[in-house]
Amino acid sequence: MRRVLGSVRARATLAASIVVAVALAAAGAAVLLSLWTNLSEQAGTEAERAAQKVATDIASGQAYGDLSLDSDDQPVQVVDGAGRLVAVTEDLERISGTGVDRVTPQAPGAVTGDDDDDDGDDGGSDDDPHEAGELGEASFSDGSATIDGDTADYRFAAVPVEVEGKGTVTVHAGAPLTAEQEAVSTALTVMLIGFPLLLAVVALVTWLVTRRALRPVEGIRGEMAAITASEDLTRRVPVPDTHDEVARLARTTNETLAALEQSVERQRRFVADASHELRSPIASLRTQLEVGAAHPELLDVGGAVEDTVRLQRLAADLLLLARLDAGERPADARFDLVALVRDEAGQRTGDRIAVSVAADSADRLEVSGSRGQLARVLGNLLDNAQRHTRSSVSVSVRRAGEWALLEVADDGEGVPAAERERVFERFVRLDEARARDDGGAGLGLAIARDVAVRHGGSLTVREAVAGGALFELRLPWPERPAGGR
Q: Please, what CATH class does the domain formed by 330-476 belong to?
């Protein structure tokens, strides 16, 4: 049972069936109540007419014995002001619901119960609200009666009439509820038969419609299972020819698969390029060590150290890229970007071209993030400028609106417009200026852009005023805390 209800189709069918069942039960109860109320009102109207007819005859002065009370299905009782039954329908054997259970007329002089004082009431009362011969407002009650051996339920109407010399006489007349009960019973029978059939139809339709609606989902699930089993990320799930949520799910799934395929392909290229880049310094270092072991006098210690440093830098770059790809978030520390630039530029004593810094010493430009990672970005940009420049490398720091702007410019050949995005890809070198002999592995600018993006900023390149390349790093200006200056 739990396995069956684990299906979306089964749960949807069950939920729809329950909702429809509750709605049908409520609607059925309302219909039966309305039907019974209307039919009961009709019976009450019929009983009231019969009582008014007899009351009118009494008001006109007709004697009790001359009243026309014979009816096959309408019991009538006439009760005088003293509570005596003075006239009744012939063959009435039993009655309830009128307040007078007697079915045999009493003699006019007979007294029952506490009727000793009724003689003073025969002439009427000054406090009676009804004038002589005036019919009062009818009141209604339900009960039963047996006429000539047939027992049935009735709706009774009691109509008072003020008769001069007799006081207030009350006429009780009933209308049978048999037709009403049969109508309600028939309606109930129809509901008991029709509602389950209607509920079954609703459940079947819901089951079929849900199966049809979920068929594309099953297709998506099956294709995803096949992709998982085959590890073939070039496959895509089928997209139904609809414009609903399932079609959007299929398109989003395909977009996710495409992004995953690109990520895996990018990782494969990264591993292949990293292996290739690592192979060269490792092979060179091994060769030098093997030669040194066999012929110590031929060992190139400087070359071995250079290859070791290059290998160390490449390993550090690969480690940083791996951390960035893993989604490592930068620290949320605040520091002065101007001070960072001056510190980094002052430590570069081995550059062939001196780095000039353009920033007012009085300025303080705070940014938020990892000081070490942003120092690495600046170092990579300066290394790139040193490899390309002819005679000058400059760094400027300023605020531009809501951004902290750091620019590194050189007067080299620059970056062609068609290559200004490609230059930020990993292991990419442009022409001979990016040769491996210059020490570049093609990771510096890629690392710089990834770090900039992780800090909520951007890194772009355009032509400098001197004709070389100008790399522009934008970092968001941090919000000041309350009360800050």
A: alpha beta
